């Protein structure tokens, strides 16, 4: 496109030429007037552009004109040509372009034809024409095929190249006709038989067409070149004297362009843009119909100079008829004459649009350098000068392409119908799928729901059955417990009674035997006396002694029988008591004293019957304490058990305690703790010791006799909760003795006490808690004395009691809880324990006690304790606890 600037930039220097718009390849939009539809009406003025081309000297001229200077001198930079008149004078002419003998074919194309071709591509008509004397290079300029040398390709070939490069073969079409006018007949160069083609003019539009001409659609350059070659072969080429190769016919190449531009699109957008014809766009596309006419005129030489004769002369006349008609038309146009004799020749009729019409026209006038043809050269130059004055009104040829739009719409409609049908089907399928899916889900949900309901129902039933079962079990366990308790007690009572009965029976038998023997002896004595009366007296003496001994024995036995009887009655009473006690329990009366602070409540409750007490007192009185104590060492286990029970009962009475201890009962009881083989003996002995340990003097005695060790030993290996309870009770009593603190601890009393928590029986735990509370109380007393005997941490803490204390501070058994709460308060009163208590979590328990304890006194004590300890106060402040 750069070379098109030659026209654009070149100023029109010819004084006789109008300063018109430059020959632009693209017309300024503002210049375009249009009214679509209804055919092409947008017009823009466009003067015929004229270039002059000088042929180089040929061989002949080189030889013939060697001594003569050329008749023309070119000033291409000034776009001027000087035509020599004589040696000292010349005329100067300005052209739109001056092409020297050195101008390349490419340059000539770009300067002369390319702007026209571009206009044609934009929908205008265009004409490129060569005018000149035969042999000056018209055919060279326009029609060279460039077979041997591509750089020699002429305007026709290059125009088609440009066109094909700029159209879309899908939407646009190019077709050509190739004709010649020879002796005023129009011949089809593509079909020589078609040798008289009429010119048809559209009355309405005035458009000229040659409907008889062969029209060949061009889709590639090669086809086009073959067509040109074919046409060239057909072209009548009559030799003349001037140039044997030049033709005397006018050759006319017509290129018809049909270009489709989408409606609303910028018509002036570049041609190589991909213009999509999407079916979605229903604006009718705009059809642009450009026509390019390339005219290779026959020679313009005068007839008289041609030397033709006969037919040739006629021919020359015909040629010149068309040419002179063309000259006349151009003159008329140049001078704006009212009459332009277009109809005078076929050529002017065919070129109606090219001069004075709507076409963009470019003329190249060819001249030779030879001074011998100066006159022809001058006439050619004048022709060119006149042609430059011809003003055309360029008009775009476009119309709405309703046909293709309707075709497109039809295709689109069919496509939409098909699409719609497909979519309908897809939609129906989708609806069906969703319906099935929904149905499936509903079914599934229903099933799940039913299953869940069923499951829930079964679960509820199971739960219900389970609860019923549990309640029944509970009920039956309770029932069993009541019955079993009663029976066990009764069984043990009955056992004892049976044993005693057997014992008594045995004694009775023994007595009977003794009486029998006594009777026998008496009889023997009578016999003997009779014999002695007749014999000696020593034997009588002996027998008397034996008899007396027997009497003593008898008495003793009788005493024992009495004692046993009394015991039997006591046991019977006991059994009755147990029975009635159980009966009471079963009737809903809780046995009294179970939650009593006393460690011996069980024994005491058993001993609380006056009748029973009386029987024991009786027994005691009857048998004698010493005797009972001696029975503790009896080899008969039954006797030992019985004896220890008696002693335990006696020990429950404070009045007896001193006597028991004096008689060595304590020692015996302690010894019994060693008898592992019988748990009952240990349990009862421990109970007795516990009772004795209530007395302060006895406590010291127990300690002195190594009782702590024995109790600790029992504590560690006994398993019966009742035994442990008794041992714990004994130790708890000892814990309350201020004087024994250190020894109790050093002999392992505290450890033994704590060890018993392994048995989780509440009775045992309660005694342990009581012991701890007692010990803590003594410690706090010791530390609060003015000359405090207690220094350093609590021995309870030392022996690791704190975790258990903290753990049980809120024990659900109120008795345990009370003791532990008291223990905590006592421990807290000694500042030295505070740190351990805080780290052991005891502070929280104390705070809880100070807030929630149901016993006001303990609650107050806890509060008092907390507020009086600086360590606790500081910690509470840190933890933002308020008491
Ligand atoms: P015309 O068609 O005007 O009668 P041609 O095109 O047949 O003339 O040219 C006559 C001769 O001159 C041919 O042999 C051609 O090759 C030669 N010729 C014409 N123009 C040029 C040119 N510009 N350069 C070289 N040779 C040329
Ligand atoms: Mg020619």
From TrEMBL:
Gene Ontology terms: cellular component: mitotic spindle; spindle microtubule
Binding site for ATP: 132-139
Occurrences of domain Kinesin motor (ranges): 47-390
Keyword Nucleus in record: no
An annotated GO BP: spindle elongation
ARM repeats: 623-665, 664-707
Main location: cytoplasm
One MF term in the entry's GO annotations: ATP binding
Location(s) in or outside the cell: Cytoplasm, Cytoskeleton
Residue ranges, compositional bias (Polar residues): 9-20
InterPro entries on file: ARM-like (IPR011989), ARM-type_fold (IPR016024), Armadillo (IPR000225), KIF11-like (IPR047149), Kinesin_motor_CS (IPR019821), Kinesin_motor_dom (IPR001752), Kinesin_motor_dom_sf (IPR036961), P-loop_NTPase (IPR027417)
Keywords carried by this UniProt record: ATP-binding, Coiled coil, Cytoplasm, Cytoskeleton, Microtubule, Motor protein, Nucleotide-binding, Repeat
Coiled coil: 406-455, 504-574
Region called Disordered, residue ranges: 1-20
Subunit structure: Interacts (via C-terminus) with NEK5.
Family: Belongs to the TRAFAC class myosin-kinesin ATPase superfamily. Kinesin family. Ungrouped subfamily.
Name assigned to this protein: Kinesin-like protein
Biological classification of the source: Eukaryota, Viridiplantae, Streptophyta, Embryophyta, Tracheophyta
